[in-house]
Amino acid sequence: MELSVRWRRMLFHTFEYAILLCIVFLSYLLLPKWTRWIVLVSASYIFYATSQFGLVWLLLVSGAVDYLCGLFLFQAKGKAVRVGLLTTSVIINIFLLGYFKYRILLQDGFDYLTSGGFATTADQFILPIGISFFTLQSMGYTIDVYRGKQVPERHPGYFFLYVAYFPQLIAGPIERARDLLPQLHSQRPFDWTRFRSGCLLILFGLMKKLVIVAGLTPFFADVYQDDPSGKPISLLIAVSLSIFYIYADFSGYTDLARGSSRIIGIELSKNFRSPMTATSIRDFWQRWHITLTKWIFDYLHTPLASLITSRTGRYVLIVFTFLIVGLWHGANITFILFGFLHGLTIVIETLCARNGWTLPSGQLWQAARIVRTFSLSAIFGALFLSPSVPHALAVYGELFQVSFHDIFATEVKHKAELFTAFLGTLVWMGHRLKPTLLDELPKSTFWRWALYIGLLLFVILFSTSNGEDNAFIYFQF
Predict the structure, then answer these.
(1) How confident is the model over 253-312, as pLDDT tens digits?
(2) Which residues fall within 8 angstroms of residue 12, CB to CB, at 6 or more apart?
(3) Dihedral sign of CA atoms 205, 428, 472, 13 in order
(4) Distance between CA atoms of 272 and 332, rounded to whole angstroms?
(5) Which parts form a coiled-coil structure per UniProt (predicted)?
């Protein structure tokens, strides 16, 4: 089974996207304010159409359903009618998501049960990019209207823009209507500080993707796209840095999305809060892919938890919730196990804390907690990156067979790429440790522009990616 995901025409780190962003920015700056929503909605649907023109209708259907359901919900009086409208939104969005994302998984399961084997013939089933994100965002709006937390948007143009806003359309952040819609309506004047901050975010996003991720990719390709045996150096890097690799890639995309939006005056939600310093798996998910975690807990976990009174039932619910998180990532058993293991670990952490089985306090033990959490995340990350469970087991098996002799006797390949990734990580970590460095620089325009140009040249000189062949990991979801 192979899913075809066509996103190559306008990746965030390509020249084509840079042209689109420049056109949008200049149009947003120079055209009358009342045309801004037209500029943004046009750019958003053009952005999607350049990748999958034949599937633009999915955006329109999801948006139309929730636009109408929101309006009717606000006017409806009877509970039965309101529940019916909410159910309509949920069923249609879940159907769109399920049909396009999980159809082959369900078909394979049916074939296995009825004929004792897998008989799927749809080898090139097209997966709509961004469907896991825009269906949740659109459906969340209707749920908020039903709960009385959101006034329905009456202007169809602004609502369809909310569903398809191009910086966050493909891989989030998953925005709430109460946060994004007012900003789409606002007519903010150009602000130089905001523009500069947005450009800096874009530069850091490019550095993460084109320097750090691209530099590590050859090692990860050796392990997860090929036979992992006989590659001790690549194995150590690809397993021990698996979660860091995913983080650099996904946060790089998020920086590009937030930076693109910030330069036109629209602030997107933060999706990460230093997850590599988490002290437990529970803490990790409070820092990692924050908008997805909050969506799942606000709209699924919390309503179900209110119906469960037993402690055991709540533990089961935690595991179930993270099974859904895993399934959200894709119709692959590796993602389902990825979610299950995180949920199970959180339950174990909760039981240990309840019984007092925790590490002592103190800075040294705090560091031990961080190392423990990072190690678990790396093990789970290897499963996440593996194409199948047998491949993941082969990776784990090969890792346990690696000896010090194997490491020192093996020639390190891709030395230049590894060095550039290391340099990029130093720059990134330096900025993370001293995020106010730019504000502490001399106010001289010369020094600031010297830094910006220096960072841009660093990205250009040390980039090891050709852009087209290095799509973001989360674009497949």
Answers:
(1) 999 999 999 999 999 999 999 999 999 999 999 999 999 999 999 999 999 999 998 999
(2) 205, 209, 253, 256, 257, 260, 472
(3) positive
(4) 25
(5) none
